[in-house]
Amino acid sequence: MAKSTAQNREIMLSALRRKVIPGLREAGFTGTFPHFRRYNGDSIDLITFQTNKYGGSFLIELSAGFPYGSEKNYRLFGSMTEKTLNVYATNIRYRLPGTFGGPWFYYSDDYKSKKKLRFGTRRAVDDKDTGISEQKPEGASGQTFDEATAEKLCDEINRQLKKGFRWLEEFKRKHAEANATEHHAVRVGATIARVNLAKNGRGSLRRRNKEHRMENSKKSALRRITDKFYGGLNMSWPAVILFAVGTAILTAVFMIVPAFRNTSFERMGVTFEAWVFFAVVIMANCKSPLDSALKTFVFFLISQPLIYLLQVPFSSMGWGLFGYYKYWFLWTLGTFPMAFVGWYITKKNWISLLILAPILCLLTNEYIGCFQQTIRHFPRLIVTAVFCLAQVLLYLYAFTEKLWQRLLGFLVPLILIGAILLLRPQVDFTATNFLPDDPVLTESAVVEVEDPDTFEISVAATGTDSMIRVSARKFGTTSFVIRDGETEYRYTLEVYEDEGGHLQLRILPKE
């Protein structure tokens, strides 16, 4: 006797969980069935399993989104964000070939007629035109679905996914120019005054040196260190080149070695805070605005492509990594005027503070966000949080002289970023999910939520592939009940953030 569609679906889902989904997890994908995501810094890889609305089959699509580019390859709708992005929102996507001429993978008894029509092979269908025939027609051949068939389908899916992943890498390479990243997105406009190497007026060299030593003795130890670090180093051309090569090697190591994955050190290759620090050191030790602009530009011109070059032997993209460099080269060009203007922080007046303001706001946003991550997943990103906060304090101390300037430079960005975070919801999360016990809901099903001000839950699909749509405004747990006629289904919902900083959804049946 043939099994029901719901029974076949459970067999197929069980096989997918055993043979396909673990491979996606191993490849770096997160999420829950049917939507999976892999965050790469520059892009978000997407895989979706789309179920036939009549049941009995599904197809698989792959795509990628580019959140930092001018052409993102997606359009957010409703309350969707980059953290809840799925294939449905993308413009260009790849669909696996499927079986029987595809694109569907069938978890039912499925047959193809041997009778040829003018435009190809005719499929035997039932009266709903679902593409599925419950009874084998005369002269037809196909599959009889069982657990062995499900295993074979999973093997075929894994085989087709390899081709899909090749398409995905090629697609990302070709669309790199439409997806400028924020890697090293900020190029510093900050520097410090040159040390006055000689005293004005007449007198012997010995007298001038003595006066210089007496002046230094009056300074605090911290001030002597900052004066040396920001203005007392010999930033010659050989030093700039060695500095660029050294930082590139260090960054490549952090990007290649698995031990640094998802740590503050890996961020050196995907965010800007370390490069702000390096650029300030260079500009603060240059002799003129033009010297500052030239040396900062050359530093980035050497270091950025070298980071990619060192990663090529260890990356599955190979030389395709350089598809992203063209945008970093545009940012490298931008360092020339930014470093030219940044040199004028040497004046140590209100203009210096004005030039510093964008950097202080960006670093403040970083350390607040990273401290929030640290609190939720200690000690994740604590190094980045402390490093960004230290930069804010260090630049205000080294580049300003008056207390009111330092207080203004610290408090205004803190209040501004804090206000934005307070006004913004803690979470802006929407997802569609299957229920764990696979109930078959009808059109009359309604949902009652324990905390409706924080969580919105509704029925997204009914029938054998019943699903719910969940929207959340903050992390937490709630209970909800689905009433379908005289039947009640009780569940617990949890919205949380995993160790990688990604939003996750968990639904459990309630006893």
Explain this structure.
With 511 residues, this protein is α+β, with helices and mostly antiparallel strands. The protein has 12 helices and 16 strands. The longest helix has 28 residues, at 147-174. The protein is elongated, with a radius of gyration of 30 Å.
Strand and helix layout:
Blueprint lengths: L4 H15 L1 H6 L3 E3 L2 E5 L4 E8 L5 E9 L28 E2 L9 E2 L3 E8 L2 E4 L16 E4 L3 H28 L30 H13 L3 H9 L7 H20 L16 H12 L4 H23 L13 H18 L7 H27 L5 H18 L3 H21 L5 E6 L11 E4 L5 E7 L5 E6 L3 E9 L2 E11 L5 E7 L2
Antiparallel strand pairs: 1-2, 2-3, 3-4, 4-5, 4-6, 7-8, 7-9, 10-13, 11-14, 12-13, 14-15, 15-16
Helix pairs in contact: 1-3, 6-8, 7-8, 8-9, 10-11, 10-12, 11-12
Helix content: 40-55%
Number of strands: 16
Category from helices, strands and their pairing:
alpha+beta
* SSE arrangement, N to C: HHEEEEEEEEEHHHHHHHHHHEEEEEEE
Distance between the termini: 33 Å
Number of helices: 12
Our Rg estimate from Cα atoms comes to 30 Å
Mean pLDDT: 81
- Counting structural domains, the number is 3
Range of strand content: 15-25%
Low-confidence stretches: 113-140, 179-205
Outline the biggest β-sheet: 6 strands, antiparallel
Shape: elongated
